[in-house]
Automatic annotation (TrEMBL):
GTP binds at residues 225-230, 244-250, 269-272. GO terms for biological process: tRNA methylation; tRNA wobble uridine modification. Residues 3-118 form the GTP-binding protein TrmE N-terminal domain. It comes from Methylocystis echinoides. Residues 218-302 form the G domain. This is tRNA modification GTPase MnmE.
């Protein structure tokens, strides 16, 4: 087994960088770099030297975690060194030259931790989310699952299923053919009902948790010159989109990723909806109409109201926004904004936050954060539905229970997962 190393901190100028090292050569390496092996789990200040030449490379803090009590389950070390690129590069070069060491691949530390039982697959996925988290709610959700919320839930469901399976198998073993109907199906149903209720609740919440990872999608729509691009720029507080008095200015969709009340919100400026004047504009309009199908909310912009929200699909909530309220007051039922002065923007942000909160939740009770999780629970749930059917042959009920348990095993990475593992861990950055 190779000993792997990588910088765990981002590239570029920084006060410190943390180099992570894991594998059987860690002890020899630390001794070579610092002259002696540091005491386990105690920070030690040391001059790091090139083991080949004795040349001083940097002064830093060493941490040594003997396996299996480490992040990877192997002997593991961290070098906290100065973060300048020359320092980091020289240390990495020195590590490369050390016998038994090679640079880590993306996600390789986490993968070794998984292989050694330090975390399950759902926790690894949530760790990747935690690193990607941009908002409070995303952080909360990722931390919850990384902390093992889904792992514990799945383990408790599996344990209950295995108990139920034992009950069915005992019946199969000890009853003769004629007596099978005496088996108490009510007992099996009673054992499975609470699990099915919990799974149903988790499945209902899953779309919100998945959406929280992706963000709440808001489309800014309306006729040309309604002030859509001006509003996007005001919300993003940056000059993202071109604004001009010419109708049909915007053709491509322009996105801003915002944090609104701790929730991830993607706001998209779009081409004004009208009978397109040319082919490019028509393509722009077609794209808007396609994308809005997946949106959560459409801001329908119009100056002074009037135009009915056409082109907004039934599943997408429209919010009527009357623009340029410095020129014309909003009609009843419209939210008035003036993007050039900022008037009404607070109320608009509140209205978006309210809807985003309702759609995404706050991450505090999330369990199924990937479609992979939802698919596995859905398949376990339907297997349990079959298992409790009346007149079900007991042999088949037992097979349903086993298939439900296997589906649960896929979530934590206990069964047939090689390709899932590759997909999950390769999405990590190097050094995780
Ligand atoms: N007075 C006033 N003018 C505004 C306001 N918002 C936008 N405008 C002006 O309205 C014109 C059109 O603004 P845009 O933001 O380009 O409108 P749009 O809806 O993106 O237009 P298209 O991309 O062409 O569909 C520009 O001249 C803006 O300066 C506002 O709140 N008050
Ligand atoms: K315009
Ligand atoms: Mg525009």
């Amino acid at each position: 087994m190779a000993t792997i190393f990588a910088s765990g901190t981002g590239a570029g100028r920084a006060a410190i960088a943390v180099i992570r090292i894991s594998g059987p050569a860690v002890r020899d390496l630390l001794t070579g770099l610092a002259g002696a092996l540091p005491s386990p789990r105690l920070a030690r200040l040391a001059t790091l030297r090139d083991p080949a030449t004795g040349e001083a490379l940097d002064q830093g803090i060493l941490l040594f975690f003997p396996g299996p009590r480490s992040a990877t389950g192997e002997d593991y070390a961290e070098l906290h060194i100065h973060g300048g690129s020359a320092v980091v590069n020289r240390i990495l070069t020195t590590l490369s030259a050390f016998p038994g060491l090679r640079p880590a691949e993306a996600g390789e530390f986490a993968r070794r931790g998984f292989a050694n039982g330090k975390l399950d697959l759902s926790q690894a996925e949530a760790l990747a989310d935690l690193i990607d988290a941009q908002t409070e709610a995303q952080r909360r959700q990722a931390l919850r699952v990384a902390g093992g919320a889904l792992r514990r839930q799945v383990e408790s469901w599996r344990a209950a299923l295995i108990d139920a399976l034992a009950m069915v198998e005992a019946e199969l073993d000890f009853s003769d053919e004629a007596d099978v109907s005496a088996f108490d199906r009510a007992a099996l149903r009673a054992a499975l009902d609470p699990i099915r209720a919990e799974m149903r609740a988790a499945l209902l919440e899953a779309p919100a948790s998945e959406r929280l990872r992706e963000g709440f999608l808001v489309m800014i729509m309306g006729p040309p010159n309604a002030g859509k691009s001006t509003l996007l720029n005001a919300l993003a507080r940056r000059d993202l989109a071109i604004v001009s008095a010419t109708p049909g200015t915007t053709r491509d969709m322009i996105e801003a990723h915002l944090d609104i009340a701790g929730l991830p919100v993607t706001v998209v400026d779009t081409a004004g909806l009208r009978e397109a004047a040319d082919e490019i504009e028509r393509i722009g309009v077609d794209r808007v109409l396609a994308r809005v199908e997946t949106a959560d909310l459409a801001l329908w912009l119009s100056t002074g109201g009037g135009t009915p929200p056409e082109g907004i699909p039934p599943g997408v909530e429209p919010l009527k926004v009357s623009t340029k309220s410095d020129l014309r007051p909003p009609p009843a039922g419209w939210l008035g904004v003036c993007a050039t002065s900022g008037m009404g923007l607070g109320a608009l942000l509140d209205a978006i936050a309210l809807r985003a909160k309702a759609r995404l939740g706050d991450g505090g009770s999330s369990l199924l954060i990937r479609d992979r999780h939802r698919a596995a629970i859905a398949s376990a749930f339907s297997a349990l539905d079959h298992a409790v059917e009346d007149e079900k042959d007991l042999e088949f009920a037992a097979e349903d229970l086993r298939s439900a348990a296997r589906a649960l095993g896929r979530i934590v990475g206990a069964v047939d997962v090689e390709h899932v593992l590759d997909a999950v861990f390769s999405r990590f950055c190097i050094g995780k």
